[in-house]
Amino acid sequence: MASSKSASKSVLMLCGDYMEDWEVMVPFQALQAYRISVDAVCPGKKAGDICTTAVQQESYQYQTYSEARGHNFVLNATFDEIEADKYDGLLVPGGRAPEYLATDKSVLELVKVFSRSGKPIGAICHGQLILAAADIIKGRKCTGYITLKPLLSAAGGHWVEADTLAKCTADGNIITAATYYGHAEYLHHFIKALGGTITGSNKRILFLCGDYMEDYQVGVPFQALQAIGCHVDAVCPQKAAGEKCVTAVHDFEGAQTYSEKLGRLFKLTASYEGLDASSYDALVIPGGRAAEYLALDETVIKLVKDFMEAGKPVASICQGQQILAAAGVLKGKKCTAYPAVKLDVVLAGATWLEPDPITRCYTDGNLVTGAAWPAHPEFISQLMALLNIRVSF
Q1: How many helices (H) and strands (E) does the chain have?
Q2: CA distance 174 to 137
Q3: pTM
Q4: Less CB within 10 Å around the terminal CB: N or C of the chain?
């Protein structure tokens, strides 16, 4: 987690069961990576309780999006104890949670408090249902998931056509987006609305992807880096730009190891064949099961060696360190990873650093390593530091 001592802004996130998975976790961890404190609350629940999330994505077989079970999201604050005036902004994730949160009087009063104060309010996808129920979008430009057009128009909002799923609009202190595809612009607007300034951006960053990489471990850093102005490309051996990799949702749910659920389809932005690695400033390696077979690919090994030998930042998380070990680039390095990968790290000649707590990451020279997706705030912020990117207030 980002250190609260260094946080200059504080944001409240309004959560509920079956909110969309990325629409809660990407803003939650990205803002912490930018050194913004984020409290996530849910009516009727307290800090430490879990909200179930949903993976919602376009369906090419059906007329609407599909939904599957997502990660378990742990709340870090208690709804009944919050004091709205202590926060600088409010974020409302989408998914199906807003359908019932919009009927909760305490939720609507909370939203109205933020509206009256003029503080930034960001809502995405179906989150705009809550803004409509709180009667705060009358006369405001807004967008949302395409099925919300009749309702938001009836509530007096000036609908901005969601011609793409990445559509985003800002009107005064109200920032709205159609879906998680618009996170880059959505979060960028929100940072500016909080008074933030981004320096050192425009870096080019490459993500090394594969089927069954961990869902959060690709999605969160990918969109967090886009939001601060980086050009981010995702590639996979034997796949071209526009093709997809399937992701995996990993959680601890009472068994001796993590559970795995099917995640979303992640679209690649560039082709692996003919890749010019020299045009990128940094490499990011997500974890998950993809690393097991990517570590056997000689072209992948060469790619990793090229980045390390050039002294460019390389950030690897969870099982991603299996690839680093196979590439022979860990000798003499201090490194952490998912604990089951400790043997790979040690046999590769690295000094093992215990991931205690699991949110801790380490930087050794040009290498950033983390153990699991709860470490994303530090993982992203340490990579930003190597790239000399800053979000200041």
Answers
A1: 12, 24
A2: 8
A3: 0.96
A4: C
